[in-house]
Specification:
alpha/beta; 5 helices; 10 strands
């Protein structure tokens, strides 16, 4: 039996010295067919709650996806296929607090990219850049660590839902402050009637869309 050494790791364990490799994308036709099937499955898993958290709001709940291991796996695969379909090759995936943290690290690993968080003001240590954005109750702030993105690196921003687009736009401005090249934005769900993509100055890619007026981000 071959002994494991630093040169010959055990066969059931990956070589820790090897960098993660990006999975090969599917062929165009096969990938598009697989993506379409995954989108249908994911859309069926969403739950809607009328008049929550206030009257007139239709609450879009994506959490059932994460409660089921197969659905969760399907979501990450669908995001990967969408990235391949759009020929995006990010060096860095930036996730927005907080739901972007559920998506970003897993997708970044699949793409062979790094992950960098954007957080609310006061949550990150060290030197940071700050950007303001408007919310329904006033102004809020996003921050990113100054060494999170190197000048010239390609960046994809990810979050769960695009509603009014203010928080995503703030994240995009932070990427540009650090000299990153913003490839675009990626979301699970878009609330089309709020026209949030009109605030964004890079391509917007979504898996699912909700045409219901009064829908609200989870």
């Amino acid at each position: 039996m071959q002994q494991s050494t630093s040169q010959h790791p055990p066969p059931n364990r990956p070589d820790a010295t090897e960098a993660p490799q990006r999975q090969l994308p599917s062929t165009s036709a096969t990938g598009s067919s697989e993506l379409a099937g995954l989108e249908v499955r994911l859309h069926r898993s969403l739950r809607q709650y009328p008049d929550f958290p206030s009257p007139g709001i239709l609450f879009e709940d994506i959490l059932p996806i994460f409660a089921d291991a197969l659905l969760h796996q399907s979501l990450i695969r669908a995001l990967e296929l969408r990235v391949d379909k759009e020929s995006l090759r990010p060096d860095i995936v930036v996730g927005l607090e907080a739901r972007g943290f559920l998506l970003g690290p897993s997708l970044a690993l699949r793409l062979g990219a790094g992950f960098v968080p954007v957080r609310k003001q006061g949550k990150l240590p060290g030197p940071v850049e700050t950007a303001a954005f408007e919310k329904e109750y006033g102004e809020d702030y996003f921050q990113i660590q100054q060494d999170g993105i190197k000048p010239g690196q390609t960046v994809l921003i990810i979050d769960d839902i695009i509603a009014t687009g203010g928080s995503a736009a703030a994240a995009g401005s932070l990427v540009k402050k650090l000299g990153g090249h913003l490839l675009g934005y990626l979301f699970i769900l878009e609330l089309d009637f709020l026209k949030g993509r009109e605030k964004l100055d890079a391509p917007v890619h979504t898996l699912l869309s909700s045409q219901e007026e009064g829908a609200s981000k989870t």
